[in-house]
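Report of the visiting student (M.T.), summer placement. My assignment was to run the structure pipeline on a short list of targets and document each run. The first record concerns ArsA/GET3 Anion-transporting ATPase-like domain-containing protein.
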Amino acid sequence: MVTQIATSLDVIEIDPQKETGAYIKEVKSNISNVVHSGMMEEVHRQLDTAKASPGADEAALFDKLISIILEERQHYDKLIFDTAPTGHTIRLLSLPELMGVWIEGMLQNQTTRHFRNKKKFISHFFHTT
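After the run finished, the structure tokens were exported:
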């Protein structure tokens, strides 16, 4: 929520925990169109685990920053973000690439496991001597 604190100066304070919860919920919704329904429970479990992992807050905050830029840029001459110290900000800005790699790895792992289980099932019932 935008709050005006002075003439020509508005602020938004972002709650990292709230944004992380909303971000994970949105990722779960978006990924449901990509992941096989039989894998959804495991994917949701992984995402719930990721919610507590290092970098989750930064990923959610990065998503929120992008939303603010896209939604508010037409209303203001300048958008200024007061972020954490430099190391945290660099980590925040590198997260899109890292999250993409993490999700691709997770999906590849699940797909490999799915095919391995299917192969075991088929070989068990159709084993020839």
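The beta strands are 3-6, 9-11. Residues 8 and 76 are 9 Å apart (CA to CA). I thank the supervising group for their guidance throughout the placement.
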